[in-house]
Write a structure and sequence with these properties.
5-stranded antiparallel beta sheet; 4-stranded antiparallel beta sheet; 5 helices; F-box_dom; SCF_F-box_component; F-box-assoc_dom_typ1; F-box associated interaction domain
Length: about 375
């Protein structure tokens, strides 16, 4: 009788190529199938190849100091069926019996950087693998400092992940001149480095967004207007890019979002004036363009304000507008934060073998 071929009978390079096309969440469940797969799924070159081929995206939401998994259904939206969203459950990994409160989350290549409200410090978490890494401050921890997660690009397949911490404060009595302290945490050395003080007259007006390892914000001042500021984690320097609009009003809300792995979108709205207009621009490929160009479109939204500042989530498009979630339990001023991410197998541990997982490996 002819022997049935198994995937383990294939040449290793062909086996690796096939497995690199499988979603990371499935691979995470199979990593203890055999020793060869356990080693393969931790190989940085394989992890990068799998991430680059990934197509599916997932969402999480930060709300009431907790992180929740999020399910969004957009099927049939072009056929006039209403979109829907379901908060499917609290993510227990970061919300243990101690009740850790989370004030901010930041995403980079499948990793979530969580800022806690207490003196417990930072937590980096991979929702796909369940790995968690707690990071202690260099001197002391303040939850209102700004943090960003990124990596230095190199010729090797292994990214060098880093965290940028910034602390801003006024240095004059007129509150017109600001100074900022910057520190870098390097995962490979498990240590912080001081980048020094930078005197500046601008502040950050948006949550950061990560694209190809670098972080981008909307920044500026009332006197000089606003622009897109970025931090290059490879060179560890700041740079700036122009925005597609000019504004000198800090109340004009701006939000950044990554579009795929090559572009950035900016949404601008006069939110405090309850404006019903949203303007959205999308860049060309940032790393290929010397002169940044933007495409744009306008959305008009008829907001329902009868519930005041109660947290709500909408799905908005050119031809539709739908409230898909309303929080009836939280505080009025708790605005939810949604993150879209691609699951990844990247390891954030300190190269220490997981004995519990190794004991589960079945052989081969």
């Amino acid at each position: 009788m002819r022997k049935k071929m198994m995937i383990s009978d294939l040449p290793h390079d062909l086996e690796s190529e096939i497995l690199s096309r499988v979603p990371a969440k499935s691979l995470a469940k199979w990593k203890t199938t055999c020793k060869r797969w356990y080693a393969l799924f931790r190989d940085p070159s394989f992890v990068k190849k799998n991430f680059d081929k990934a197509g599916g995206r997932e969402m999480i939401v930060l709300m009431n100091s907790r992180v929740y998994s999020n399910s969004v259904n957009l099927q049939g939206i072009n056929n006039r069926f209403d979109p829907s969203m379901e908060v499917t459950g609290k993510l227990i990994k970061l919300n243990d019996s101690k009740g850790v409160d989370i004030s901010a989350i930041f995403h980079c290549d499948g990793l979530i950087l969580c800022t806690t409200t207490e003196s417990t410090g930072l937590v980096v978490w991979n929702p796909c693998t369940g790995e968690i890494r707690c990071i202690k401050p260099r001197i002391f921890y303040r939850c209102n400092d700004r943090y960003a997660l990124g990596y230095g690009n190199s010729k090797s397949s292994c990214h060098s992940y880093k965290i940028l911490r910034s602390c801003c404060y006024y240095v004059d009595q007129n509150l017109s001149l600001m100074a900022a302290e910057f520190e870098i945490y390097d995962f490979s050395t498990d240590s912080w480095r001081d980048l020094g003080d930078i005197t500046r007259d601008m502040i950050v007006y948006s949550s950061g967004v990560s694209l190809k390892g670098n972080t981008y914000w909307v920044s500026g001042s009332k006197e000089k207007g606003f622009f897109m500021r970025y931090f290059d984690f490879s060179k560890e320097v700041f740079g700036r890019l122009p925005l597609p609009y000019q504004s000198f009003n800090a109340n004009h809300t701006a939000a950044l979002s990554a579009v795929g792995n090559e572009k950035i979108a900016v949404l601008q709205q006069k939110i405090l004036a309850m404006s019903d207009e949203m303007r959205i621009w999308v860049t060309n490929k940032i790393d290929e363009a010397k002169d940044l160009s933007w495409s744009n479109f306008l959305l008009t939204v008829d907001y329902d304000t009868k519930d005041g500042l109660r947290s709500r989530i909408y799905i908005v498009g050119k031809d539709f507008y739908k409230e898909v979630f309303k929080d009836t339990r939280g505080s009025d001023n708790n605005w939810p934060l949604l993150l879209c991410y691609v699951p990844s197998l990247v390891s954030i541990q300190e190269n220490i073998p997981n004995k519990a997982e190794e004991n589960e490996i079945k052989g081969g």
